[in-house]
Amino acid sequence: MLDEVIVIGGGGHAKVVMDCICAAGDTVFGILDDNLSTNDTVLGFPVLGKTTDFEKYRNHPFLIAIGNNNIRKQFAQVLNVTWYTAIHPRAVVSRYARIGAGSVILPMAVVNAGASVGKHCIINTGAIIEHDDRIEDYVHISPAAALGGTVHIGEGTHVGIGAAVRNNITVCGGTTVGAGAVVVKNITESGIYVGVPAHRQ
Ligand SMILES: CC(C)(COP(=O)(O)OP(=O)(O)OC[C@H]1O[C@@H](n2cnc3c(N)ncnc32)[C@H](O)[C@@H]1OP(=O)(O)O)[C@@H](O)C(=O)NCCC(=O)NCCS
């Protein structure tokens, strides 16, 4: 049966997420966003109210469409609802990979065999998650970023656009890897890392 999803957040990332939900054969019932009005629509879908109105819609599955990892985590911890997991039909997800509830796998992303993706993660357009990678909860892997095999990404970390992480590397939680960075050594202290090879900003 068709899922009618409640989307938390109505910004730019939400457009991509809503498109993904529809491409997957489901639909968007409406949006809850604290900064939009009920007169607004996003991609033609109605803004139903604020996030505090969530109780009215708990018979629907929910998905948080907010790019910021910390904000996504805050909502995930407060909203006691059923989570929808969005996998775009043109993403390639191995049958031997595991995807956590509330995560989004966008078009052209690849998640290879033996990889696991935690809860409420974003695997963005064209990102590559190689075999045996372990992605913890609330992680965002940006468009065209690539992780070699057996990489471990800690909770809440953001890997920027087009960044690369060499195989067998661990990046600790709460870290930002800048756009285009190449991580060749384990990152054990959270912070912002940029450049080739990546160093602390
Ligand atoms: C790394 C990053 C977090 C730094 O953001 P910031 O702290 O606001 O940094 P600023 O833009 O103020 O730049 C500070 C300095 O770092 C440099 N810098 C910024 N981003 C850089 C990057 N990715 N690689 C190399 N150098 C970078 C700037 O050139 C600047 O250098 P300067 O002081 O010599 O002029 C950010 O630039 C970035 O890459 N974010 C990822 C964006 C992304 O992937 N978004 C996904 C959307 S889907």
Structural notes for this entry:
- There is one protein chain.
- This protein has 201 residues and is mostly beta strands.
- The termini are far apart.
- It is globular.
- It has 2 domains: 75 residues, Rossmann fold; 110 residues, Hexapeptide repeat proteins (UDP N-Acetylglucosamine Acyltransferase, domain 1), CATH 2.160.10.10.
- The model has no long low-confidence stretch (mean pLDDT 98).
- The protein contains 2 helices and 24 strands.
- Strands 6-9-12-15-18-21-23-24 form an 8-stranded mixed beta sheet, covered by helices on one side.
- The structure holds coenzyme A.
- Coenzyme A binds next to β23.
Q: Based on CA inertia axes, which overall geometry fits?
A: globular
User: Can you identify the CATH class of the largest domain?
Assistant: Mainly Beta
Bound molecules: coenzyme A
* Class based on secondary structure composition and strand pairing: mainly beta
* Low-pLDDT segments: none
Which range does the strand content fall in?
25-35%
CATH superfamily of the largest domain: Hexapeptide repeat proteins
Give the averaged pLDDT, no decimals: 98
Percent of residues in helices: 10-25%
Quickly count the helices.
2
What is the strand arrangement across the widest sheet? 6-9-12-15-18-21-23-24
Secondary-structure element series:
EHEEEEHEEEEEEEEEEEEEEEEEEE
Characterize the main sheet. Answer: 8 strands, mixed
CATH topology of the largest domain: UDP N-Acetylglucosamine Acyltransferase, domain 1
